[in-house]
Design a protein that fits this description.
Layout (H helix, E strand, L loop, with lengths): L2 E3 L1 H10 L3 E5 L3 H5 L7 E2 L7 H6 L6 E5 L4 H12 L5 E4 L12
Length: 102
């Protein structure tokens, strides 16, 4: 199971959680056009997506986003289904995010 977070909740949690891993599941082009600081890019549409997700540490807290929330919801569902315990989805994606982008 994963948790849905508003922009404010998402931003507050990633700032206060030293165990947070920010995961951007958009394309590399979207990522390069502006992303949340310290985000790791793993494109959900890439052939390597499942392998890259499976290589991640399941004991960390994952904060996942995309452009508008659809792809990140799919990624969160997948991560939860394979045993990730702490997965959070940014409702509305980066379009709804009020924090800083780099």
């Amino acid at each position: 199971m994963y948790k849905e977070l508003t922009s404010n909740e998402f931003e507050n949690e990633i700032k206060k959680n030293p165990n947070a891993v920010i995961l951007d599941v958009r394309t590399i082009g979207e990522y390069n056009s502006g992303h949340i600081p310290n985000a790791i890019n793993i494109d959900i549409s890439s052939a390597e997506f499942a392998d890259k997700i499976n290589s991640l540490d399941r004991n960390k807290d994952y904060y996942v986003y995309c452009r508008s929330g659809g792809r990140s919801t799919t990624a969160c569902q997948y991560m939860s289904s394979i045993g990730f315990k702490s997965v959070h989805n940014l409702v509305g994606g980066v379009l709804s995010y009020d924090g800083e982008l780099v």
